UniProtKB/TrEMBL annotation, chains A, B:
Main EC class the enzyme belongs to: hydrolase
Name this protein carries in UniProt: fumarylacetoacetase
GO molecular function, one term: fumarylacetoacetase activity
InterPro entries recorded: Fumarylacetoacetase, Fumarylacetoacetase-like_C, Fumarylacetoacetase_C_sf, Fumarylacetoacetase_N, Fumarylacetoacetase_N_sf
UniProt region (Disordered), positions on chain: 1-25
Domain Fumarylacetoacetase N-terminal: 36-136
NCBIfam families for the chain: fum_ac_acetase
Domain Fumarylacetoacetase-like C-terminal intervals: 150-440
Gene from which this protein is expressed: fahA
Top-level taxon in the UniProt lineage: Bacteria
Pathway: Amino-acid degradation; L-phenylalanine degradation; acetoacetate and fumarate from L-phenylalanine: step 6/6
Co-factor(s): Mg(2+); Ca(2+)
Known EC number: 3.7.1.2
PANTHER family: FUMARYLACETOACETASE (PTHR43069)
Organism: Teichococcus globiformis
Amino acid sequence: MSEATPHTSPALDHTHDPALRSWVPGADGHAEFPIQNLPFGVFTPPGEAVPRGGVAIGDSILDLAAASLAGLFTGEAEQAASAASGTALNAFLALGAPPRRALRARLSAILAADSPDREQAAHCLHKAVDCALHLPTRIGDYTDFYVGIHHATNVGKVFRPENPLLPNYKYVPNGYHGRASSVRTSGTDVRRPRGQLKAPDAEAPRYAPCERLDYELELGIWIGPGNALGEPVPVAGAADHVAGFCLLNDWSARDIQAWEYQPLGPFLAKSFGSTISAWIVTPEALAPFRIPQPARPQGDPAPLPHLLDQADQGQGALDLELQVLISTSAMREQGLPPHRLALSNTRHMYWTVAQMVAHHTSGGCDLNPGDLLGSGTLSAPDPGGFGSLLESTGGGGQAIPLPSGETRRFLEDGDEIILRARAARDGAVSIGFGECRARILPAA
Amino acid sequence: MSEATPHTSPALDHTHDPALRSWVPGADGHAEFPIQNLPFGVFTPPGEAVPRGGVAIGDSILDLAAASLAGLFTGEAEQAASAASGTALNAFLALGAPPRRALRARLSAILAADSPDREQAAHCLHKAVDCALHLPTRIGDYTDFYVGIHHATNVGKVFRPENPLLPNYKYVPNGYHGRASSVRTSGTDVRRPRGQLKAPDAEAPRYAPCERLDYELELGIWIGPGNALGEPVPVAGAADHVAGFCLLNDWSARDIQAWEYQPLGPFLAKSFGSTISAWIVTPEALAPFRIPQPARPQGDPAPLPHLLDQADQGQGALDLELQVLISTSAMREQGLPPHRLALSNTRHMYWTVAQMVAHHTSGGCDLNPGDLLGSGTLSAPDPGGFGSLLESTGGGGQAIPLPSGETRRFLEDGDEIILRARAARDGAVSIGFGECRARILPAA
């Protein structure tokens, strides 16, 4: 990690030490939330009414408001803990990296096996299973990008066989405004939408329940300080405005989409619900899993200068394994575990997160603390890594067999989709994001 | 007005009486805000720091918080005034029509020439010219529609000469998610965006200041109570969720738009700034200006059943005259008044506001109090009523002459665009919306 680019990749420090152990039962060796992770979220403890900020550690959650009241923080860490004590984390995200890092360092010390604060902190812990998890921020705006190049190519083939990847794709980290109001936290059921469906040979559309319901495997990005209207964020400073990451399932009604999407893009096909994982995994926690942006294929144009930063190219990409799993009603009745539909990786992003932020603000559009960006579907190049059913069934043509004896072209009522992320690398303790899970309810 | 459909068109009552006079100086005969209008907004009085809700009357603003403290309201009117006393009107809009109507009736009585409360109310009045106006709500989500059929046809010709109006247009009240964070109140300058521009014959795009900057003349719609996620609003009840109207200038960078808009729709071309008029003109104030939805041209399909309500067809459209005016630096130096670029009318909406709301929620997407909808550009069929330069210059081909001797194909730095609305009808006092005005600053 180069010291010349602290904004892009926070240096590794003692909070990443693989030898670090925690006194919290179950934290050491936890698949998602060992002491090296320390993601932030909003939860309500059992018997309480008011949501507040917390930190996931093993199978527990540390109440930041309670820990703050107990006097466990001082200085910048206290400033951050206080900002993270409310019902949403916008104010905390607005603080930017230094207070967030100070809080992380202090939390690491408090939760470490040798902590002198163990007894006091233990009073601020709750079993996660007893707590309700909420949206971590009041999402002002949500923007969905399209930077998964294999997905863009696969989907392009379905909608425009002759012209899958449009000429702007390799110049523009394209995105569109999504619907912020319908984003929900993991665990919230999603109702199958109705909409206008038109068969290719039908004379007119009809209003009916969606018949081609799909998921999309995405990385979510939480915006930190952000920018004032009219003041673009340069790509070299863009990482300073990224406060963390989550998983995002951008549920999609393919039949509604096919009929509505011209000329203004996706609208009702994607605004009936989007599901995110509840925890904000920080750039600090992901520092060990940074990689160079994969080289563009021979012949691809270089990014325009305002989107090109050598430090970002050198370590602005992420190496995160992503999974999609399905659990149908029949599978649950038969006692079968969730079945993996896809295995992909964030390295399939054609543009880095910094390039997305720089592009988004390049015309002056303001990003604000707690805003959410989606990467777009992150498919691997091979069919085993396709991040949507649209891709893995070839537009619904080939049914996918499931262990229950069923098959799927698109999602059925009762189907549950689970997204998981895992960061693993030699010399680092692997961490996860927590689940992004939701079940399909029948149309109203 | 039929009593069977009070939700679509609130009956006329004494607040609309053309004989009604106000004791507020300048209110009687005021072009925009006579006592028959009474629009709501958020303002800061001179010498004060905290914004609060107010009502425009003539050239004055009545402070609702002060009037409430003075004991001028009781019952439902007090509930509404209290909800409208804060720094944003979301809570007021959430109350829906009955409290809003009660407050209107009481305000009409307080401000009427024969009011016994005149002296007390006079202490709550401020000269509008001394006050700062703010966004009336914290806009959760902003959706821009495309229901101006003449605009859709004109623009379609520029982008797709062979196929101007797509097959879905007459079935789908299409829209797209806009950027909520960059909406600003009238009077806030707009900075010319930079973006990726690509000439048709250029090999690659370049990042440069927009060269084809345009305005769009739109009606804005403020959402009232709204709906829960997964629970569509039927078209027959949709008007209950409309809390009011404003003017909206959806600034558009045509060169950025042309390069970026496929396949996901407008993004940075329209997210560098949108300007709205500050006052929420209520459905009650507009009750005298309701008209039947103009008949669809022979051969057009009927709306699908979930978008069709006879009462809405009978009186769900609006008869509002809309104007676009320009004032350039040279015009101001020469002492010339703003020059009218277009005269249009809200009757050119192919879909009603109720149909827009019903469509938006038809897949379960939730609308929330204070959300903003845009109609899309409302052009008249004739060139004198085209609501954007893209249309009135034929895609930039024909320059428009101005009284200053200048011409315009697209907007230049220093140009100010002013939108105005006027509701006028025999037997009713005419009302306006207040200006939607902003000036273009040079690119950063």
